[in-house]
Amino acid sequence: MRCDLKRRFLLLYATQKGQAKAIAEEIWQQADAHGLEADLHCISEMDKYNLETEKDPVVIVISTTGTGDPPDTARKFVKKIQDTTLPPDHFAHLQYGLLGLGDSEYTFFCNGGKTVDRRLQELGAQHFYNTGLADDCVGLELVVDPWIDGLWLALKEAFLSQKEKEGMSSNAISSTPSAAPHVGQELNLSSEVQNMKLEDGVRSSDVLTQKLADIHLVASTRETEPSLVHSIPPVSQSALNIPALPPEYIEVQFQDTHGENPHLSSLISEGTTFEVPVTKAVQLTREDAIKTALLLELDIADTVFDYQPGDAFCVICPNNVSEVEELLHILGLSEKAEYFVSVKVKQGTKKKGAAHPQHIPERSTLKFILTWCLEIRAVPKKAFLRALVECTSDAGEKRRLQELCSRQGASDYTRFIRDSNVCLLDLLHAFPSCKPSLNLLIEHLPKLQARSYSVSSSNLYQPGKLWFVFNIVEFPASPARPVSRKGVCTGWLADLVAPLLHLNKNTLDTEGGSSSTEKISIFARPNNTFHLPADPSVPFVMVGPGTGISPFIGFLQHRQKLREEHTDWEFGETWLFFGCRHQDRDYLFKQLRCFLENGTLTHLKVCFSRDSSTAEQTPPKYVQDVIRLYSKEVARVLLKERGYFYVCGDKKHMADAVNDAVVDILSMEMETDKLEAMKILAMLREAKRYLQDVWS
């Protein structure tokens, strides 16, 4: 007779923006259908689990942040396991499987997961299941879905071997000869359950609606191209594997219109926030430039905010006012915008470990939540689409949403939602019969993240001032998203400083400037490595096309001030490679020549990718091409003089190409093969002498 006691495994997640948590919750939900119990915890909750004494299998889902760091929630855990006094058999008793999340556009792909995986192996832990590394660049689900599918058999085999080790009596299920066929039967049964998932959470009366939807889709097959709202065979004719319906766990109650919203600082857990005035705004590009770059100056004199050149900081920004109003209108809640709402965990919810979302205040107005707390521009995850199915009355729209969250519709999801940067508003326009409740938005929309920017100044050079530079991000309209939009933060900042703006006339006077009463809230995000060499005599190379030049302005300001104050010091040579499209439209800092003239900058090399040339020999278009022209000098700085190499800017189209150019230079100048040159570059990275501050 089969024992009803569910076998337990420990399920840990380490998340930065919610992806790893959502995947861990999906595993937790599926575990129940497989007759298993997942003991789910954030990896930071170290008082709730103990790997030193853990006997059951452990499953870890971990993301990567920054340029290859484990998420903030995993810092204490990583620090603990990296203790060099731990013996090599410290985790010899531990069996685990790890799923790492990352983005291959960044050099240290899945490094958060790889770091933990490598260290657990060094401490004697054993894999019961192969490590999965999912790539957000092509779609996490391409690895995540099959990895989860294979997890159940691997877990059951781990339980079998565990029972054998424990030498259980022959009555125990795991050690009986009949156990293996039983596991097989259970897995077959579970795959049938998966195929029936389409009916999960759907009332029997919906079977008729489903058939009507099929008729509707057959009728519209004259449309031969799929789109956000329309599918074609085979998807349109497939039986669908759709995710389980996520249990609702939030309860929202409207109260009155009296009171005050919380201060923005209460939304931030990462550090102290400072409200600072914007004292200057300059447009660095000409009106006909393809991108619009702005420089803003903040007055930090009355604060204890401190920074080094190369640091970043975060700006707390709101969602676009008109988008918030539009969302309120579609939800039928415009009249309740200024009402205070109380957000609580629903009593009796089936969601494991349901808790009040930390980014939602206990009491604030509905408009405040939609403006400052929820990322309404987030690309909806499949679990959200699955929940939206239940709020959709039109049968055809319902079916299409089911397809988009199904396994069969994975490529449609990637093409029409993920790659098209579709957000909730776009979905509600595309599927007008979908009317989600407010609690669903709070459950599924992630926290509105503060946006990070590189500091573009030196506190030594201009005390009490902070500069930063950014392009106003533009999202052009597309078939899946019929309206163009600006970036959440850059669009807001541009509107905010519009009264301050004056067109840059190739000068950046650090004195004067327009005064402003506009203030923004910021907090520090120090960079531990992207700093000037501690020894000023060490030479360095800077590569920063476009707004990638931003931190290097701070570097050069700092270096100039040090040269003025310490005339007896020895200073190493400095190289700057800068590039933009047009010399007369988007050469952001023409005053770089001042640094060249006063000796702060030894070599300035610039290129313009879209300017036509009448020269016999076409000049190089991109920074990576210019770097190759100075291969001997670059190799000398890096190899003979133990110099530093800094790269800042676009990851995909520039930083990777610069990386390849440096590999070629090392290979050529050292007369070695590419593999050896790549190893040398890896050593330079390890020694923190090849440093990147990049974005995708």
Written overview of the protein:
The protein is of the alpha/beta class and 696 residues long. Among the domains are: 7-162, Rossmann fold (3-Layer(aba) Sandwich); 540-694, Nucleotide-binding domain of ferredoxin-NADP reductase (FNR) module (Rossmann fold). The strands form five sheets. Strands 8, 9, 10, 13, 14, 17 and 18 form a seven-stranded mixed sheet that branches. Strands 1, 2, 3, 4, 5 and 6 form a six-stranded parallel sheet that branches. Helix 15 links the parallel strand 19 and strand 20 (574-580). The two termini are 56 Å apart.
Structural class: alpha/beta
Assembly state here?
Answer: single chain
Proper CATH architecture of one domain? 3-Layer(aba) Sandwich
Strand content: 15-25%
| Number of contiguous helices | 20
Describe the secondary structure blueprint for this structure.
Elements: E1 7-14, H1 19-33, E2 36-42, E3 58-62, H2 75-81, E4 95-102, H3 111-122, E5 126-127, E6 132-135, H4 141-166, H5 179-195, H6 206-219, E7 250-254, E8 273-283, E9 293-299, E10 312-316, H7 321-330, E11 340-345, E12 363-365, H8 366-373, H9 382-389, H10 395-405, H11 410-418, H12 424-430, H13 438-444, E13 451-454, E14 465-471, E15 474-475, E16 485-486, H14 488-497, E17 502-503, E18 519-525, E19 540-543, H15 550-565, E20 574-580, H16 592-597, E21 603-608, H17 623-629, H18 631-640, E22 644-650, H19 651-669, H20 674-686, E23 690-695
Parallel strand pairs: 1-2, 1-3, 3-4, 4-5, 4-6, 8-17, 19-20, 19-22, 20-21, 22-23
Antiparallel strand pairs: 7-11, 8-9, 8-18, 9-14, 10-13, 10-18, 11-12, 15-16
Helix pairs in contact: 6-10, 9-10, 17-19, 18-19, 19-20
